[in-house]
Amino acid sequence: MKPFQTSLLLFALIFAALACEPSCGCSPAPEKYSPLVGRWELSQIKYGMTGTVATPQQAGYTETLDYYADGTFRRLKNDREEENGSFRITQIENIAGFTEALYYQNKTYQPYRLQENTLLLYERAPNDGVIADGATYTYRKL
Questions:
Q1: Separation of alpha carbons 83 and 86, rounded Å
Q2: What is the mean pLDDT of the chain?
Q3: pTM for the full model?
Q4: Out of 2, 8, 31, 74, which could bridge 66 as a Cys pair, Cβ 3.0 to 4.6 Å?
Q5: Quick check: 140 and 40 in contact, CB under 8 A?
Q6: pLDDT per residue over 68-119, tens digit each?
Q7: Residues paired with 89 in a beta bridge
Q8: CATH of region 28-141, choose from 3.30.110.170, 2.40.128.540, 3.40.50.1980, 3.40.50.10490
C-alpha cells in the first residue's frame, strides 16, 4: 500500500474509533443508569432558604419517581402521572455539593446524588439557569 493510502486508512480508523466514544459524558448505556433504576418515594423535603424540613404529609402531597434502564422516567404526584419522558445523566460543576445532574428532555436539569438506597435531588432548574438556595428532596428506594 502506498504511504498516502496507509495514512488515509489510519486516519479513517482513528476517526471511526473516536466517533464511537460518547464525548459528552451522557451515554445512555444501561449500566450508567443502573443505580438509579427503580422506584423512589419522596420521604423528606429540606427547604434551602430556611433549612426547614418537611415530610410529604406536611407538604401536602406524595411523589414517586420511576427511572428505567432505557433512559426514560415517570413522575407520579398523589398517585397520578404528572410527567414522563427521557432523561440523561451528565457531570456538572459543583452545585450545592452535587456533581452530577439528570437532564430531562433537554429542557430542565436536576442535580442529584445517590447514597445507598437514598436519592437526593436538588431543586430543578432550566438548562441555562442555577437555583440558589433551592430545596433538596430526599427519596427512598422501594
A1: 10
A2: 82
A3: 0.74
A4: 74
A5: yes
A6: 999 999 999 999 999 999 999 999 988 888 999 999 987 999 999 999 899 9
A7: 102
A8: 2.40.128.540
Residue that the C-alpha cell 404528572 belongs to:
82
Mapped to the 3 state alphabet, what secondary structure does the chain carry?
CCHHHHHHHHHHHHHHHHHHCCCCCCCCCHHHHCCCCEEEEEEEEECCCCCCEECHHHHCCCEEEEECCCCEEEEEECCEEEEEEEEEEEEEEEECCEEEEEEECCCEEEEEEEECCEEEEECCEECCCCCCCCCEEEEEEC
Q: What is the grid cell recorded at 122?
A: 436538588
Grid coordinates standing for 79? 398517585
